[in-house]
Design a protein that fits this description.
mainly beta; disordered N terminus; 14 strands; single chain; 1 helix
Length: about 220
């Protein structure tokens, strides 16, 4: 990948970490362990990875990006799901100089589009929100790229709530994704201000039910 680096910060706004979460998905009677990790990837880039696995299989999502202020500018996004003898993959590459994006998915022809050069992705997005909350922002708008194109997403702080983490009550800032009123999907994220706005919980409500990702232990 060719990367341009105009004036990216030497020190990342969010420090490297590895954290364990548990995922409870609608329709499944058991929870799944998940790991979120942020590590330097060299050449001024960083790698954000989420890995969820159990005895059936695993899902791995990877983002390679450059920090531009609070924005993780995506250069690569990868998705791999393996289980029950099947493998599903998707990859997105964004050229840092031109902003041109190339998407490749299982059983699909490559797809090209213009990302605008200032897009992040779904896996790196919580890092952007974490950084913005650290800076005192309460209304946040981000361009988010995936295999199909770029979507403008808006988020709003709703207040403070208590989330139970490892048997302890933790005060968390609740953030809601602002969607059209006729959209049946809902997304909330909770970040702990006393712990550097670490993501402690994420809830996604779809037509198929409620999916909850919760931090196992605070750093």
């Amino acid at each position: 990948m060719l990367l341009s680096a105009p004036a990216f910060a030497a020190e990342p706004p969010v420090a490297a970490f590895e954290a364990q979460y548990r995922l409870k998905a609608a329709g499944f009677p058991f929870t799944v362990g998940a790991t979120r990790s942020l590590t330097p990837a060299g050449d001024g880039t960083w790698k954000m990875e989420v890995l969820a696995s159990n005895f059936i299989g695993e899902i791995r999502e990877t983002s390679v990006f450059q920090w531009d202020g609070c924005l993780p500018l995506t250069r690569y996004y990868g998705y791999r799901r393996a289980g029950l003898g099947r493998v599903k993959t998707a990859e997105l590459r964004i050229d840092g100089a031109s902003g041109k994006a190339t998407s490749e998915r299982s059983k699909h022809e490559p797809y090209h589009y213009d990302s605008g050069g200032k897009a992040t992705d779904d896996i790196a997005l919580p890092l952007a929100l974490q950084c913005m909350l650290l800076n005192g922002e309460r209304a946040m708008t981000l361009a988010v790229a995936d295999e199909r194109g770029v979507e403008t997403q808006r988020y709003q702080v709703e207040g403070e709530e208590t989330v139970e983490i490892d048997g302890k009550d933790v005060t968390a800032t609740k953030v809601r994704r602002v969607r059209d009123k006729d959209n049946g999907r809902q997304t909330w994220l909770w970040f702990a201000p006393e712990h550097g706005y670490t993501l402690v919980q994420l809830v996604q409500r779809n037509d198929d039910g409620r999916h909850v990702l919760t931090l196992e232990t605070l750093p």
